[in-house]
Amino acid sequence: MNPAAAPWLRRQALLTLVAMPALPLAAVALGGSLAYAHVRAGRRAGLALTHHRVPWSIERRVRIVHLTDVHVGPTTPRRHLRRVAEVVRGLGCDVVVMTGDYVNASAYHESRITELIRDLPAPCIAVLGNHDHWTDPVRITRALEAGGARVLRNDSLVVRGAGFALPIVGVDDGRSRNADVARAFSSVPEPHRALVLTHDPKTAEAIAPTGAPLVLAGHTHAGQALPRALSFVTKTIGMPYLRGFHRIGRTDLYVSAGIGHSLYGLRAASTAPEIAIFDLDPDARTRTSLTSRTALTA
Asked: Is the pTM of this model over 0.70?
């Protein structure tokens, strides 16, 4: 080696060592900046109210409000739960239904589940999700029941109100392998009149042969913080029902974006928290939907 070149080579090596950490740091800074903008856009998007009018064989129009994936704790502030309850109380619903994942990985904030149920209109019918089963299904069930909710674990009931009777079937969570469709429908003489609740949308594939007209689910958070383009990826990895309506045989599946989140702060504008409203209407001929927005904080 040319001795005159040694100082230059040493300088180049030093500059390379100094510059190498700057590349990942720059990537992290850029990613953080994009994520921050993503989250701010999500917060500005507020709370989505999706309103669906659905043809139904029933005595009169019945309004159902669907909440899911509350994930109480740091990822879903108490003020957001209070706001959700306030909005629901103003919707004039006949029944509130909830489709699981009330916690993340701990039952530490279980009292907030009870608080939320007490703030909601009655009756409230609920099923459990995978996070509830992975945490403590007995404690989560007790927290729901303490607030006044009826928890269906592969079971059914008939909700009777002023001038209507609506069968509701609760199929337990399929993600944690607790779903038993046959048991859930064992006391349902007319499945074609029943509203079905479950957590994991894929469970609807096992429910569809019953002929139930509508299955409500959650679980996906509408893709959570992922861009819409990645819905293709989710289908590839076995999550084909990301959000909204899907047709499976004679059954409609609706997947709500849900209220909470399993990752702190990361919720994109395209996956804004959702309250889904379903008017089961004997006078409707076709299904119609519209979406409005309201602030997530009062």
From this structure: yes
d(CA 98, CA 1): 74
C-alpha 197/C-alpha 193 separation (Å) is 13
Q: Is 197 helix (H, G, I), strand (E, B) or coil?
A: strand
Residues 6+ apart with CB under 8 A from 199: 68, 99, 100, 101, 127, 128, 129, 130, 173, 174, 175, 217, 218, 219
* Model confidence pLDDT, tens digit, residues 223-276: 765 545 455 555 655 668 989 999 999 999 999 999 987 665 454 545 789 999
Sign (positive or negative) of CA dihedral 202, 203, 206, 207: negative
Which residues have CB under 8 Å from 119's CB, separation 6+?
81, 82, 85, 86, 89
